Amino acid sequence: MLTTQPVGSVVIQPGGILHFTNRGRQRLSFNGGSGYLWLTRDGDIKDYVLRAGDAISLCAGDDVWLTLEDADSAGAVTMERLDAPRSLWEGVAARFAARGARPCGAAVQAGA
């Protein structure tokens, strides 16, 4: 059982369990020839079944449990970061900081 954040690609064996706490926004992709990947996140009432080629977005702090079911061979789980580079967010923050605040309850005017 893996309990640290996977980086890049991780191989999971049939019946194997993978557990980690996600750091940052990431896309988890399942690459397998047979079977399916069962994904559960603590606090989420839904479970997810991923077939080969399927992907799901994960949020920072997600406590994720994976298991590979009904597979003839190992499958791969790939993690890809979805976070934008910090410089982009700094630029966006600067643009919004320059705008004046609108009080709550104020009417929205066209062009505002």
Short description:
The chain has 112 residues and is mainly beta. The protein has one helix spanning 86-97; strands at 9-12, 17-21, 26-31, 36-41, 47-50, 55-58, 63-69, 75-81.
Low-confidence stretches: 101-112
**Proportion of residues in helical segments:** 10-25%
Structural class: mainly beta
The CATH superfamily of the domain at 9-84 is Jelly Rolls
Number of helical elements: 1
Radius of gyration over C-alpha positions, nearest whole angstrom: 20 Å
Please give the order of strands in the largest beta sheet. Answer: 1-8-3-6
InterPro entries: DUF2917 (IPR021317)
Pfam families: DUF2917
Protein name: DUF2917 domain-containing protein
Explain this structure to me?
The chain is 11% helix and 38% strand. The protein is mostly beta strands. The chain has a domain at 9-84: Jelly Rolls. The strands form 2 sheets. It has a 4-stranded antiparallel β-sheet with strand order 1-8-3-6, with no helix packed on it. The chain has a 4-stranded antiparallel β-sheet with strand order 2-7-4-5, with no helix packed on it. The relative contact order is 0.27.
